[in-house]
Design goal:
Blueprint lengths: L8 E10 L3 H11 L3 E8 L4 E8 L6 E7 L14 E8 L2 H10 L10 E2 L5 E5 L15 E6 L2 H7 L2
Parallel strand pairs: 1-4, 5-8
Antiparallel strand pairs: 1-5, 2-3, 3-4, 6-7, 7-8
Length: about 160
């Protein structure tokens, strides 16, 4: 893997935490820890009902997405494990995807698409396989296309 990486990871965009009851999660993260509630996102297809909360401002804002399943009996089971995934800002998502794939990194099904916060996203699969031997080593990792202002602020 000696090729120069043609993209940069700029910073943490989000951390997603799952539970059976997001009301309890919101009590902890908003009421007790002081994060700001921003919005709610619901997707039957993704089996998620999440509150988007944040701390910080501008390029230094970090989301904490508090997720519960729409239907606890369906997949994906966003409440298992409690630390669902971590999201990383990337300066060029398509180039990152193409380069990482060529190096054997496995991505989860679904490809590049719009995420809950409106940014283009893609997920690195937690586990590698025969075709793509590298994965997130047990962690689901979301790569998030950073908008120009975030790229500029975090490139300094």
């Amino acid at each position: 893997m000696s090729d120069a990486r043609p993209f940069r990871i700029l910073g943490i965009q989000q951390i997603a935490i799952g539970g059976e009851d997001k009301v309890r999660l919101r009590s902890l993260w908003v009421d007790l820890l002081g994060f700001t509630f921003k919005d709610t996102y619901v997707s039957e297809r993704e089996n998620v009902n999440e509150d988007i909360c944040a701390i910080g401002q501008g390029a230094y804002e970090v989301e904490v997405d508090l997720m519960q399943p729409v239907d606890i009996a369906k997949k994906p089971a966003v409440h298992q494990t409690p630390l669902n995934h971590i999201g990383l800002w990337v300066d060029n998502l398509q180039i990152a995807h193409d380069w990482l794939s060529s190096k054997g990194l496995r991505f989860a099904p679904g490809g590049i698409r719009k995420g809950a916060a409106g940014h283009d996203i893609i997920f690195i699969h937690p586990k590698g396989n025969d075709e793509f031997p590298f994965g997130g080593e047990g962690v689901l990792i979301e790569l998030v296309q950073a908008p120009p202002d975030i790229i500029q602020a975090l490139s300094s």
